[in-house]
Amino acid sequence: NTLASVGSAAVASGAGFVSSSQIGSDAREYAVNLSGIANAQRVTVTLSNVTDSLQHNSASVPITLGFLLGDTNGNGSVTASDIGQVKGQSGQPVTATNFRTDVTANGGSITASDIGLVKSASGTQLPP
Fold first, then answer.
1. Domain ranges of the chain
2. In this structure, what are the phi and psi dihedrals at residue 126, rounded to the nearest 5 degrees?
3. Which tens digits make up the pLDDT trace of 68-117?
4. Residue 8 has what DSSP assignment?
5. How far is CA 39 from the centre of its chain?
6. Using CA atoms, how far apart are residues 76 and 125, in angstroms rounded to an integer?
7. Among 128, 8, 26, which Cα is nearest to 62's?
8. Which pLDDT value is given to residue 107?
9. 95-104 contacts: CB < 8 A, separation 24 or more?
10. Interhelix angle for 112-121 vs 80-89, to 10°?
């Protein structure tokens, strides 16, 4: 079902805050923009008073997300596989399929600075 309304979105746990939120252009999606998110943490965002097009209501809808700089494959830790993934995209323009390797987001292509940043984060991981 499509969304009819969402009362609010808030960071329920973790460091950071909601800077804006809205029903997406596809009304089955809700976009939440976060700011001040610290690295290497899990953040729970809770949507309150969610109503769909059939008037089904949910008082609280939580979702937990992990944030780890350099974790380009999304497995919760930064390892040689992340470094290899960025190296494999070096020199390529950023696309919908390789955007996770553009960790510096500074110019529209994957560069040595992306490789360096992932190397510097090697060994870090998300908390349980």
1. 3-67, 80-121
2. -75, 150
3. 999 999 999 999 999 999 999 999 999 999 999 999 999 899 999 999 99
4. E
5. 11
6. 6
7. 8
8. 82
9. 100/72, 100/73, 100/74, 101/72, 103/69, 103/70, 103/72
10. 180
Q: In sequence order, which residues have a C-beta less than 8 Å from that of residue 108 and are 6 or more positions away?
A: 93, 94, 102
Q: What pTM did the predictor assign?
A: 0.85
The CA-atom distances, in angstroms, between 128 and each of 42, 43, 80, 93 are: 9, 12, 21, 34
DSSP string, 16-75: -EEEEEEE-SSTT-EEEEEESPPSSEEEEEEEEEEEETT--EEEEEEEEEEE-TT-TT-S
Cα separation of the two ends of the chain: 33
Antiparallel, parallel or unpaired: β 17-23 and 41-52: unpaired
